[in-house]
């Protein structure tokens, strides 16, 4: 009798597994079919929008504005350490060296969905970012849009575009003769024992820290440390120049000038979230002797297999062009479709005051207002270039940064990751641990990409204070 029951139980379990496998297969097939249909349609819509925006830009700004849809390339030659020459009819130069290697090829190499599936247009690694050595210097073949943006940079074109919000809070930076990032400083202002630099994530602002952690630090911490939370270039209340390429170097240089130099920071801790973790690693590599501790929340590190182009690999991990889950759909639209994502910014960011009001009414203020405001406080140019040049474009650099941190940065490294994070998978933090064995990984159960801080700010404030205390011991 017991043998019969065991056999029946085993059969039921086997049937349940088979049913689960069938349902999963049906789900995957449905997702694939819907993805083919939707993203093929979006490919067409993006082409149509490209033409419409060309017309609109010409109408509102009396000139054609560059985009990354065309396949035209130009050669840019770096002749020495201080000049960059553009090989057009006239020779242009920049006063400072532009790091062309930091311009991600994902900006202009984004094959249509059908072309990837059918293999009609096979993806050729590195075909659009070739490098050749000449007797003059290093020659890079880059997209013509970058050449046009360099011309705008030389001509001083930084004003917001017609499709960007023109309200006073969003354009206050454009009237300032000196462009520096917005920095919120709290804690001990005179001769602090140490400084703490807070770097927010993608499409966010310094309010992610100032509205959550700053009020919850103990009196002892506030009397010992100076807290510096920065709005990254292109986000929050910081400048959003229309001619910027928002490369990793530009972001890091602005942090150094606006925070480290302006506040005379010598010894400091870093607390960074998501995208900010990439900038934190870059800063740690540049200032290895000044870093007292490194705290990373949900670092977006995707180990790149050998023989694969890093930026393209990371783009497909971040934005897999799938209808489900919803986060993949949103990331795919933001990453793959230049003009559709610009339309989203036109409808939402340009009219952010209306959407902020509507959000408060609909949710009855249940959503933290600073999250909504931070989400809207950017331009399409800033979000688009930061997404590609920092998140995707650094795919081949993060491993070198982690190796340098492991070998040169002698400080405590702590990583926090929510177990329910559907934006950056937990495997990313585990991969960092594999690269830097001394790092401590803390998986916070039942928390996601945002609630890793919000909702547990008191506990996290205490954890940070302990980290800083142990680092200074």
UniProtKB/TrEMBL annotation:
Residues annotated as domain AB hydrolase-1: 196-299
Annotated GO MF terms: hydrolase activity
Domain of life from the UniProt record: Eukaryota
InterPro entries in the cross-refs: AB_hydrolase_1, AB_hydrolase_fold
SUPFAM superfamilies named among the record's database cross-references: alpha/beta-Hydrolases
One of the GO BP terms on file: cutin biosynthetic process
Listed name of the protein: AB hydrolase-1 domain-containing protein
